[in-house]
Amino acid sequence: MAPDIPRPPTLRRSCQACARGKRRCDQRWPRCTRCQTRRIDCEYVNIPLTVGSDRSSSPERTTAPTLQLTRKRPSTPSIHLPLPLEITKGYSQNIIAFLVSGMRSYPSSFASNMKTHFIHPDLWPHPSSPPSQIRDIHALCKLHTTTNSATLLPLIKQKSSSLLRQINHTTSFEEMLATAQALLLAQCMLILAEDDPATARYSESISTMLFNLGQKLWQQAPVQLPGSLSPRRAWLFAESVRRTIIVGFILRSVYSLKKRNYSVRTPFVDSLPFDVRTSLWDQDTQGWNTGVGESLDFMVSLHQYSSMMEQGMIHGISDFGGLILAACKGRAVAGLPYPPARGYKVY
């Protein structure tokens, strides 16, 4: 006997009783007028999008909370908000501590050599003269490594607020990228501070700001780069954009994990493009020219890359890859199966 084939979902709004009787249903909630008159059960496959405005109905009729939408005129179709596709995740305290430590290391790393996993000094035409946002945050990071962080926090907060205002008034994407990178460094110093009473509790506004920052960069990133850029600088620019977006979302997740012991991930983050050749980030011009290839097989989604690491398909995982693995999968590199002699990839 053939198994029952599941029926496809229906968009019908009429109640079951009116649909079976082929009668018009006024879609009242929780019971339509016909079912209420006949005193029978009124069941809906889908909650009605509208609720009648007749106030003379029975007191038994109530309004469905959060699902009530006003019926629009036919000439003005209604636009429904997308579903909040977020998945809650919770990690072990060891993984959370590892992620917090990794994010906290960015300001000190940038202070020492003006380079992090998402900021590369060779991106600028004249490394000795980076954008003003980068210069200012570099000076602040150097102070952060040598000064009591508690006394420096008001200055970092002021700078963070200034960068947040500035990012909405940038004149080029390059300026927007530099501003976003400086803002992320400021947030690493602020929201991961140990003893700051202002950041003791989780703030939804900070999480929203970091989310919007990544979305803004992704939406306004140029499709094509100027032909005046050398192949290496063009790659560094594209990689800087991708890594800045990824680090922004990792920081958002780490902030939530530190304050609430859980976080959320979204399909948008999982689908971000990622270049698996992470070692090229630390290569000089000669090494980059030797290691780069023309194949597009090196581009995968962030979800694919973290899954490849988790399954033991990548040999020699970089520090940045270790942070991605911890943020996406909640696992440490040390706990991964060692790649076999065949079937793994080295990047």
TrEMBL record:
Sorted keywords for this record are: DNA-binding, Metal-binding, Nucleus, Transcription, Transcription regulation, Zinc
**Can you tell which superkingdom this protein's organism belongs to?**
Eukaryota
- Biased composition (Polar residues) is annotated at 53-69
Question: What terms describe the molecular function in GO for this protein?
Answer: DNA binding; DNA-binding transcription factor activity, RNA polymerase II-specific; zinc ion binding
* Gene3D superfamilies reported in the protein's UniProt record: Zn(2)-C6 fungal-type DNA-binding domain (4.10.240.10)
Which InterPro entries does the UniProt entry name for this protein? Answer: Zn2-C6_fun-type_DNA-bd_sf, Zn2Cys6_DnaBD
Recorded hits in PROSITE patterns, A to Z, give: ZN2_CY6_FUNGAL_1, ZN2_CY6_FUNGAL_2
What residue stretch is flagged as signal peptide? Answer: none
Q: Where is this region: Disordered?
A: 53-75
Residue ranges annotated for the Zn(2)-C6 fungal-type domain, each copy included: 14-44
Record keywords: Nucleus included? yes
Q: Output the GO biological process annotations, alphabetical, semicolon-separated.
A: positive regulation of metabolic process
Q: Under which name does UniProt file this protein?
A: Zn(2)-C6 fungal-type domain-containing protein
Q: Which organism is it from?
A: Aspergillus sclerotioniger CBS 115572
